[in-house]
Amino acid sequence: LRELVSRLHQRGVQVFLVSGGFQSIVEHVALQLNIPTANVFANRLKFYFNGEYAGFDETQPTSESGGKGKVITHLKEQFHFKKVVMIGDGATDMEACPPADCFIGFGGNVIRKQVKEKAKWYITHFDELLKELEE
After folding, report:
1. How far apart are CA 71 and CA 86, in angstroms?
2. CB-based contact 99:66 (threshold 8 Å)
3. Model-level pTM?
4. How many whole angstroms separate alpha carbon 32 and alpha carbon 40?
5. Residue 96's closest CA among 111, 79, 84, 114?
6. pLDDT averaged over 10-residue windows placed end to end, the chain, 135 residues
7. What are the strands, taking DSSP E only, across the chain?
8. Where in the chain is CATH 3.40.50.1000?
9. Which domain of life is it from (predicted)?
């Protein structure tokens, strides 16, 4: 994944992480991949002043059903992207297409039958995408 993100950056492609996971974890991954934290869309945890867990921030689009699609719509409007490609391993990733223009199913960590069967393009290793970038 690190090589794929690096090659995309070399081509001037902006890369975003859109996750139903928690911001603090996803931002750590983004830093490892040289993706700006401003390009991370994930759920935020809330805590009371005494440090007790208070829930999650319901104002984040990824906290609700269809949230990943809302993020894609926002990115297209904000940056005027002509094409947005979504890569993911779950049904909520696949559901974000549309508004994403293309969805690539990924089964490198876990193969989800529904995603594998419905994705027009399904990969199990990012080398497959790197080869496409070379052509």
Report:
1. 11
2. no
3. 0.76
4. 13
5. 84
6. 86 87 83 91 78 71 75 90 87 84 84 83 83 74
7. 17-22, 40-43, 45-47, 53-56, 85-88, 102-106, 121-123
8. 1-11+18-62, 64-126
9. Eukaryota
C-alpha–C-alpha distance, residues 79 and 89, integer Å: 25
The CATH number assigned to the domain with range 1-11+18-62 reads: 3.40.50.1000
Distance CA 130, CA 135 (A): 9
CATH no. of 64-126:
3.40.50.1000
Q: And the tokens for 92?
A: 């909520």
Pair 17, 41: CB distance under 8 Å? yes
